[in-house]
Amino acid sequence: MKIIETKLAPNPRRVRIFLAEKGIQVPFEEVDLMKGALKTAEMTQLNPAQRVPILVLDDGTAISETMAICRYFEETKPEPALFGHSAIGKANVEMWNRRMELGLLTQVSQAFRHLHPAMAHLEVPQVKDWGEANKQKAMDSLAMLDRGLAGNAFVAGDAYTVADITAMVAIDFMKPARLAVPDDMGNVKRWYAAVSARPSAKA
User: Fold this and answer.
1) Do 68 and 98 have their domain in common?
2) Are the beta carbons of 15 and 70 closer than 8 angstroms?
3) What domain count does the chain have?
4) Which residue, 64, 82, 94, 178, shows the most beta carbons closer than 10 Å to its own?
5) CB neighbourhood size of 20 (10 A)
6) What separation in angstroms does the CA of 38 have from each of 33, 44, 81, 192, 201?
7) CA 181 from chain center: how many Å?
8) How do residues 139-172 score in pLDDT, each as one tens digit?
């Protein structure tokens, strides 16, 4: 078993944090996406979307997509439960993780990919107007997160979950995207200080 990743990319980091919270150790194989390593025939066979991370099981089965990999390990080691407990708890985690993944993380990523000069050879064409539009979309998602955290210790309630992992990684990815959390979002700042202090955040 191994996980193929590019360590600097946000989605592999989400998996590393998840595994650290679970106390699961898996060997990692580094590839350089900036140099086109994901465009090879071998990588395309493992993941037609040409993205990392990719979990390769001992029998050769390849599982890609960050949440699919995390769900695999949730099934193999249910505790601590990072996808929630009970029907309502799991639904709430799913709801917030999708908001953070399809909203904030995607918006920050689009701003980065369409505005950062280093991404020009990978994001063809770079559409600067779309990158700029996603800056405001990311701020809107942060504002929603700030409101949600007003009465909660964590993104999806009173327990740390994958929704916290996704949101924290998205906020960390704001730095290369040249974005910052506004000073008036005190709930986000309080929560971010707590989750980024967890040992798993360094994974």
Assistant:
1) no
2) yes
3) 2
4) 82
5) 17
6) 6, 7, 32, 32, 26
7) 17
8) 999 999 999 999 999 999 999 999 999 999 999 9
